[in-house]
Amino acid sequence: MEINGAQVKETYYYKDMGLSEATMKALDKKGFAQATPIQGGAIPYFMDWRDVVAKAPTGTGKTFAFGIPMVEHIDPESSDIQALILAPTRELAIQIRDELRELCAFREGVRTVCLYGGQPIEKQLTQLKSKPQIVVATPGRLMDHMKRRTVRLDKVQTVVLDEADRMLDMGFIQDVTRILDKMPHRRNLGLFSATISREVMDISWVYQRDPAEITVRPVEENRPDIQQYAIELMGREQKLDTMAALINNGGYDRAIAFCNTKNMTDRLAGLLKMRGISCEAIHGDIPQRERERTLQRFKDGKLRVLVATDVAARGLDIDDVDAVFNYDVPDEQEYYIHRIGRTGRAKKHGVSYTLMASVTESVKMRDIARNTKAEIQLLKYDKDGCLMLVGEEHQA
User: Fold this and answer.
1) Would you tell me how many other CB atoms lie within 10 Å of the CB of residue 288?
2) Domains, the chain, ranges and CATH?
3) What pTM does this model have?
4) Which pLDDT score, from 0 to 100, does residue 395 have?
């Protein structure tokens, strides 16, 4: 990890961070004692009300890196909104809200609400009447509330943009700047992202003062432990048989399969159900309430496979995913990184399989392997119909 350009190799423990008893009890309940590098680097600066620019891979504990000092700073006696987190997708916003509520399990009087599009605004108006101190929101829906004057941000002290690059890439930059301009008493701003784009740096230059810069590189110990495989097939018709066999023979109880299109996502979910594998699809055309139900069933272990488009690759933060399947080779290497990042979390071993059934898919996968410098094991079927190891797409 780098902090302000200097290499730091240090092990961080929550007990050494001067956290409250309520926060320590919440961390103990989750079985957490050792902080991840991004948490160890960011929490002290946030506790001192410093601005932070943090770059870290998906799945390295960014939510607690800003969430812990955020709840530590909340005054439960106040009914003003004191902290705001902006997220690019409703799924990520919901996940952040849930994690913050876990952090506040032993902290009375701290209320968190989540505002996002696709949910009736009347339900959110009811939630806002509880006078929350923390708001998690997508930019578009927060702007709706601001126009209705149902949300006041003039007392906000801490602001975080999570997945900042993704949010700005999605065209939210005008909404984000308008929202930031509405908080005259803001004391610190955190920008958390897997990549730091030019747009993120522009926001930093305008809205931050002497920010602490923290970079956690994927090559460090916190890099997810993911065994990556690419499987060369003779034709697309082999994909379904191969995936079903891997799920059943590998004993995977919880897997995510990614497709490039909504149509293929629905088709694959239906085909897997016909094979007796419990699964559902999730993509942007599915109503929000149904998506939330599907995600909850997956988290509860009632679904073995979640079939998703890339809209879910960034937004979901689900632990204990045994395997990720790239049913379609992703169009961009960034999608590949975020897809496989759903497994191998919290220092657990994970596995990913990418199914290649054409020359085009094989070429795309070779480019991904070269550009990500990943160790990807290449598999093929032998004449007896057994998968055999051929070699490596790339050796880092």
Assistant:
1) 16
2) 2-215 (3.40.50.300), 225-392 (3.40.50.300)
3) 0.64
4) 42
